[in-house]
């Protein structure tokens, strides 16, 4: 649960999807250990005993038997803070950012006598049950975690469209030496997916400042640059086999 007001999480409820009742979990507040401490730490006095706000994560625990997990297809988690703020069941768009603060759900899949637990997503990999639902054409806001309702016809997932960042009709090929000669502060050429881009025209208008482009001069910045829009303006040429050069 995310509490922007720094309110303490006072209630954590857990339920295996095959069960009816919610269960109260034990909550541990790691920062309370500092509230009980009086003394100095790293040359400064620790005086957190008077603070009511909570800055750190809290940790919860609850024992659930394996048979209960075997009879469930998911584990649901919801919380409440001391201001009686609760998490919504489903995701919805809101200026308050509540799209990222609904109940937490971990799916349970039975595979060859084993139980596989799957979180909604992974911070650095395209995995998780939410990604699986989206690939299957599911709607994550349909009130059923993106899964099809009973009797609902399956839908075809929308094809993923590749973003075209190349300028039409441009077929110029740039060698490695020419690329390095033009990769300077005045002419910040850089590479994205084997294509050469000239960021000179965007130095003044870049929201992050010119230095963020200058720092990319002479480098392959594919991962960082793919989120930039209208990159066709700066497409200059193709660089052949840039990864074979030292």
From TrEMBL:
SMART domains hit by this protein: Cyt-b5 (SM01117)
GO annotation, biological process: sulfur compound metabolic process
Stated name of the protein: Unnamed protein product
Species of provenance: Aspergillus oryzae (Yellow koji mold)
Alphabetized GO MF terms: heme binding; molybdenum ion binding; molybdopterin cofactor binding; sulfite oxidase activity
Keywords associated with the record: Heme, Iron, Metal-binding, Molybdenum, Oxidoreductase
Family membership noted in the UniProt record: Belongs to the cytochrome b5 family.
Cofactor entry: Mo-molybdopterin
SUPFAM superfamilies: Cytochrome b5-like heme/steroid binding domain, E set domains
InterPro entries: Cyt_B5-like_heme/steroid-bd, Cyt_B5-like_heme/steroid_sf, Cyt_B5_heme-BS, Ig_E-set, MoCF_OxRdtse_dimer, Mopterin_OxRdtase_euk
Cytochrome b5 heme-binding domain boundaries: 171-236
